[in-house]
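Table 4 source record.
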Amino acid sequence: MKTSKHIHLIGICGTAMASLAGMLQLQGHRVTGSDTAAYPPMSDLLASLNIPIHEPYSEKNLDPRPDLVVVGNAISRGNVELEHVLDTRIPFCSMASILHDEFLPGRESLVVAGTHGKTTTTSMLAWIYQAASRRNAALAPSFLIGGVAENFGTSFMVRPAKPFILEGDEYDTAFFDKGPKFLHYFPDALILTHVEFDHADIYADLPAVKTAFKRLVNLVPRRGRIVAYDGSENVSECVEKAFCAVERYGFNPLSHWRLTDLRHEGSVTRWSLTRAGVPFADLMLPMAGAHNALNATAAAALAAGQGLPTEDIVEALATFKSVKRRLEVRAVVGGVTIIDDFAHHPTAIRETLRALRESYQGRRLWAVLEPRSNTLRRNVFELDLVESLALADQVVLASVFKSENIPAAERLHPEHVVAALNARKIPSALLADADAIVETIVPQLREGDVLAILSNGGFGGIYEKLPAAIATRAPVTS
């Protein structure tokens, strides 16, 4: 696309779609979009860019007729705008394909993939490149991240230099392209964090998930490099037939990149890192959790392998500010700390709660979960969910989001999770929605409590309603 076009995005408030909208605007295109249930942070991002969000979906949103329509991967046949596009033969494509065609030619594609940790790791890698670019402008990164990186205040950036850092999503691409989005990104170098069964709505089982990641690995050229976590047999299986160099990272004494002397100091994590048995650096990260130290190690390893100076890597990690909705402190009110975390899988919930235990030792920890992701809404991980939530002192579950869209035989029964937790003497309750949760738990909160809200959506406005309700009463201090 050499000339300016009117490009309309159906499902513009998706994390990647909103970022793409901003990138296309930077390229000089006129961008419009439509969605339903827009919520921060992506709705805020679009507002800051003056990109209009049309709600609800309607044929009128396509008048005047756009030159091109980008169809989000959450959009299915039956959507009124999609049907109009098909009926009138407006040219359309997927987010991943326009990213490949418009932005990646001539670039160095650095992709971060994995079931967990990819958003944070991508943000870390971009910040490392940004730090290094202060002395070498050729390293100034373009990036696309599945969340708002707080160091940049955005989820995307487009620069003229070659490095393009991409979060590689394993979810499907569009209604007409059921392969993973990351297969469009053709990585020159790749980070692979974890491989677990996830996205039960599109993957039948773990072998299907592994097949997707094996295909990604198979796209890395011989001259490329893969940095892969060594604490997972699934990851090992996915990289075993790679044609390029593979460097493993983790706590194993034989790890190419090995973390040692890991220690937690409140919300700060410190560790020493060795490279092929030789000391590389002592690292500090202003984030809690061993999982975040692993994420940082992966970013450091890929950056070092691409030739970035060690001192820039150390500086960048020490000044990293996390990602919106990843252990984000949303409010401290009435002595209660409210944390927002993008929960999508029992493993992610477990690591989040572990990190909060490390950061807020001795304080009562609440887990308030909305089963909203396509994985959490299903019963395949019901037992795993119990084990993860058992790390909290108090647990509250909301009803399953749009449970009617999940086949009854596959649907999560949150009452089973609550019953199992109560049987383990962990006080737990099932409440219908955000309003019921706020009304019920606010009288029970006391000064010093830490409350983790776990959802990958808007959760009925609980992020605003809960602090407001706490502020109207003095917390119980006993």
